[in-house]
Amino acid sequence: RMNGQKQWTRVAVMALLVLAVMAAEGGKTEKQGKKERKSDCGEWQWSVCVANEGDCGLGTREGTRSGVDCKQTIKTQRCKIPCNWKKRFGGECKYDFQAWGECDLATGKKNRTGVLKRALMDATCATTVTATKPCGKVPKTKLQ
């Protein structure tokens, strides 16, 4: 009697495994079908963030994509341009800057280099940038 119960349990477990595998396979083919339809659409291309007021703060960006069977080819998304980032290098790019270099007496200016630290979503940023500024007051050597 115990043997019959064990065998019955094994059959039931095997049946459940077969059903689970079939269900998993059915789910996969359904998902693949969705992916195929999705691939008819191109990747989203995003414009730069445009501030609602002034040159920083909350704003919007527009996304477009191509595709004959795409339900949506244009969409607008909210975005934010940080106000403390250097706008000269693009309001969507943040750089780590080195200390200012020595004053070039020929030009009266000094330079420093910045390395890209972070870029806002889909922004196109240079990996390194150079900032220049006037030297300011050059200390005069006192004659003794």
From TrEMBL:
This is Pleiotrophin. It comes from Nibea albiflora (Yellow drum).
